[in-house]
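Q:
My hope is that you can spare some time for a protein that puzzles me. I hope you can help me see how the letters and the tokens relate. Thank you; the sequence and its tokens follow:
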Amino acid sequence: MEHMTQYVRRDIWSLEEPTPWDPVTLGYARAVDVMRGRPADDPTSWDYQAAMHGTYARPPAGADWNQCQHASWFFTSWHRMYVYFFERIVRSVVTDTGGPQDWALPYWNYSTGGPQAALPPAFREATWTGPDGRGGPNPLYTDRRAPGANLGWRLPQRAVSFEDAYSYTNFSGAPLPGFGGGQADPTQFGQFTGALENRPHNVVHDLVGGPTSGACQGGLMSDPNCAAQDPVFWLHHANIDRLWTNWAALGGGRANPADRSWLDQEFTFYDENGKPVQMSASDILHTATQLGYRYDDQVAAVTSLRSQPLAAVGGAAAKAAPQPAPTMVAASESGVELGAGTAQVRVPMAAGAGAGLAVGEPQVTDGERRHVYLNVEGVQAEKHPGVVYEVYLNMPDGTDPVQADNFFVGHVTFFGAGKHADADGAHPATGGMTHTFDVTGLVAHLKAAGAWRAEAAQVSFQPLGLTPPPGAAAPAAAGPAPGHNARIARVSLSVH
């Protein structure tokens, strides 16, 4: 077997600890500068690579633009391929300009917290000294980020936690939303966002990007059509890929799908020579042996990283059995307007549903534990508000923030909300994005604490933005940007 060169993706903060301009970061900046000088119809150019994820520009004939896969089980596999070929293009430029021969794309591990929850320093400097020794605009900097992002303001710890995503041992299917998203045909934005995609993926996009403005005039990371124009996008997605890698190695039943419709679905990318290459999930599951890279903290596999069948027929992988639809037991009678303060909505129970709600009770048919879901439906915004909203269930007014964890559900994000609301050639309008949260344990906790009411539940939404570092001035307001008109059509509870 031919030997494959092994590249190591490293934590950007560990590289930049002594100085922002270590050889890896410097090589990346030089490559970004070179790629931006290439014409937009060159597949190895910055503009072309960014447009493959999303763009407002009209694509050249035959260009593979606006291809990103979100809110479906192709989210992880498509982005792994996308980042892999981008890395190859960048490496070819790095080595051609005298940079490290073993260059690999670093990742931004914001979940570590503390200073590492802020943008890496090299991305915050507006100017730099380029390879010719003269000063100029820093290729890694953009002012089209959230207010405070370039000042070192931090992503809140809970907002970038991956613990909820790692709690799911299923990649797809029930219990919802699953680690990796729901089964769907390839589409730029589907309807089945997985736990990893919701948090930390979407949260980081929203909080780093901030409010959007025009067609990529502001809030690059917040808009799928603009996000890959921000150089930090690629480090964010390297981290998401790292989290997928480590999740699959943890064991405990965690496994990627073995459904042929997932494994064999091909997507087109471009190598460092601008040549088209087709790849499928079956080509990229083992990054070290199939793609030639690993992470500096990669978890040692406790089980095989092979995909495992969702169902088996004669020993061969087969399509997963269709899951019955959840049964709705409660729904709000009105929508919710999201603003600068706490927004609340009452969710009345269907007759007799609230008292039992079947939390923890076995289903009659298969003995499996019944799950309770909180659904935030029809999330829309005329423009991105620049914040996310934390969701709480039955949290009393005036609750001490220390006790808020006892009522915490998750985050409502807006990355891609416009894709759901507006029809275009790639997807139909759906009336807004839906977030589904498994609240089985939380409802059981509320019952045990005497904080559950049979007649109705109360759901609260609180805005959350970046956090100033210790000693920095507090934000003027924690709420959303004006004119966003963010709203939710309905909040419901269902059981499955």
Notes: Residues 444 and 450 are 10 Å apart (CA to CA). Residues 327-495 form a domain with the Jelly Rolls fold (CATH 2.60.120). Residues 302-321, 358-367, 420-429 have pLDDT under 50 and may be disordered.
